[in-house]
Amino acid sequence: MSVSRPLRTATSESKAPSAAVSATRCRGPVSRRSFLEIGSIGATGLGLADLLRFRSASAASAGTPADDTAVIFIWLPGGFPHMETYDMKPEAPSDFRGEFRPVATNVPGIEVSELFPLHTRVADRFSLIRSIAHDFADHGGGHKRVMTGRIPKSPVEFVNDAPACPSVVAKMREGRAGGLPHNILMPDDGRHGVDVFSFGAAYLGQTYTPFIVPGDPSAATFQVKNLSVTDAMATRLADRHTLLGGIDRLRRDLDASGAMDAMDAFSQKAYSLLTSRAAREAFDLSREDAATRERYGHHSWGQRTLLARRLVEAGASFVSVVLENPTPGKPLPFGTTYNWDCHAVNCHVFNDFRFRAPYYDQTVTALIEDIHRRGLNRRVLVVATGEFGHTPRINYQVGTQTGVQQPGRDHWPRAMSVLVSGGGLRMGQVVGATTAKGEDPKDRPLTPNDLWATIYRHLGIDPNHAFPDHTGRPMPILPFGEPIRELIG
Predict the structure, then answer these.
(1) How far apart are CA 38 and CA 55, in angstroms?
(2) What one-character-per-residue DSSP string does 418-459 give?
(3) H or E element, residue 249
(4) CA distance 449 to 194
(5) CA-CA distance, 358 to 335, in Å (whole number)?
(6) 8-state DSSP, 384
(7) With contact defined as beta carbons under 8 Å apart, do 253 and 278 qualify?
(8) What are phi and psi of 304, to 5 degrees?
(9) How do the domains of the chain map onto residue ranges?
(10) How far is residue 11's CA from residue 155's CA, in Å, rounded to a whole number?
(11) HEC string for 369-383
(12) What is the largest CA-CA distance in the chain?
């Protein structure tokens, strides 16, 4: 699965912008436009068939890898605070190191936050990358830089001018069978526009934006809206007004009436996705045993991540799991904020981390243990990252919600930590290091492109493969970057 020729490497990114403290509450990732979501069913019920028809025109030219590999991409919007998690600096001055201390794991030399006790027993099954950096300190610029593997034209806003890498995966794997979409995104309700996290497909076209599954899978009311059957769809396809019994009844009646034969091949493929037993079972968390669900945790983060494992096991290629608020629908604890955006104006950074660390610790370690227990650790690669880290130096401001002076950390793209697990990669190691105060890479400086080159290698995708942009110019999947050699051996 090695790339066909060495990738160009970046000489450097421009000088990193200052991660200055905002005078007001940081607005965080916000949707700017609404694009068509893959798999959404319009009033006619034929939108997915049109989508599949469009895809087939270029399927022959899409590289389809032989290996049945997949990625679970854990996205941590707001920025993952490296100084509180995977790159702690206990010897740094007090205004850098914070309130928490590192603890040893089952791998000598690997330490993690004391609030990650479950990480300590599975460190031999993950690796940490501590030296990835880029230059974009705004949420929009950071999202675009990380999600596309390109230098964005604008340092702000969330609409991509290059395809998000999951869209590239969908394009390259469109000719591969499997019965499930190859680009699935699972965010909170109300956070499901493709531009909220810069998941747009840009010049690849809206066809390759994610199949979006919003909501809290731990809630009793959770349903996969994109797989539901509307009255309008049932009426159009079956030519009757009484077909209201759901997916099973719709299939039975259509088969009996001969309507399936009247549809063209693309419509049948679309309909098969909507009504297939494999798709329904993959999305059905009730099929998991109680002990597994308990291990992941009966909260939105845990059950969403468990659902991701079910989807890649059933044939999906790339599933993005967004972890913002672990307890949607409930009041946030005092001094905390919605996602990982731990400015002092947003939250008390240490109280906020005390709130969310146990959920993250449980969710990530359950997934790591699960993919190994089920023998998926070569086939499935897990990646956990945000758009940047947070400032090594702590600052203080009055919180907009608390009204009191409190500590916080601001945006910091000059250093970020990433966890990887599985994918047949070398586990139980730390790649790279930052300076004594956690400010910049000191050893083995890397960029987001090196991470994506590693992911593409796992998926059997050649990063030098090119697609035409809006002007017809061939644009390689990655303009630079190389697989991280320490991980691939």
Answers:
(1) 12
(2) EEEEETTPPPS-EE-EE-TTS-SEEES-B-HHHHHHHHHHHH
(3) helix 247-257
(4) 21
(5) 17
(6) E
(7) no
(8) -65, -40
(9) 62-135+161-224+283-488
(10) 19
(11) HHHHHCCCCCCEEEE
(12) 75
> Do residues 404 and 57 touch, judged by C-beta distance below 8 A?
no
φ, ψ of residue 461 in degrees (nearest 5): -105, 130
**Whose structure tokens read 């950390």?**
409
262: Cβ–Cβ under 8 A, 6 or more apart, which residues? none
SS3 for 71? strand
| C-alpha closest to that of 75 among 357, 362, 368, 319 | 319
Contact 430, 130 (CB under 8 A): yes
Strand 102-104 to 111-113 pairing: antiparallel
Q: Which two tokens stand for residue 86?
A: 């995977």
Structure tokens that stand for 326 in this block: 């672990």
Per DSSP, what are the bridge partners of residue 127? 420
Task: Compute the distance between CA of residue 465 and CA of residue 479 in angstroms, rounded to an integer.
Answer: 10
pLDDT in tens, 276-313: 777 888 999 999 999 999 999 999 999 999 999 999 99
Instruction: Give one DSSP letter per residue of 355-369, joined into a string.
Output: HHHHHHHHHHHHHHH
**Distance from CA of residue 303 to its chain's centroid?**
15
Mean pLDDT of 417-427: 98
CA–CA gap between residue 408 and residue 405 (Å, rounded): 10
Contact between 7 and 464 (Cβ < 8 Å)? yes
- Residue 35, pLDDT > 90, answer no
Is residue 77 packed enough to be buried (19+ CB in 10 Å), middle (13-18) or exposed (0-12)?
buried
pTM for this prediction: 0.83
Alpha helix (H) ranges present in 297-410?
300-314, 349-373
Residues 31, 195 contacting (CB under 8 angstroms): yes
Place of tokens 């934006």: 209
pLDDT at 392: 98
| β-pair type (70-75, 318-322) | parallel
The answer to whether residue 4 scores a pLDDT higher than 50 is no
Task: State the amino acid at position 43 in one-letter form.
Answer: A
Number of other CB atoms surrounding residue 313 within 10 Å: 16
Q: Cβ neighbours of residue 432 under 8 Å, at least 6 residues apart?
A: 129, 130, 131, 132, 441, 443, 444, 445, 446
Radius of gyration of the chain (CA): 22
Tokens of 201: 């497909």
CATH class for the domain made up of 62-135+161-224+283-488? alpha beta
Sign (positive or negative) of CA dihedral 475, 418, 197, 230: positive
Compute the half-sphere exposure of residue 54: CA atoms within 13 Å on the CB side of its CA. Answer: 13
- Cα angle 229, 184, 27 (rounded to 5 degrees) comes to 105
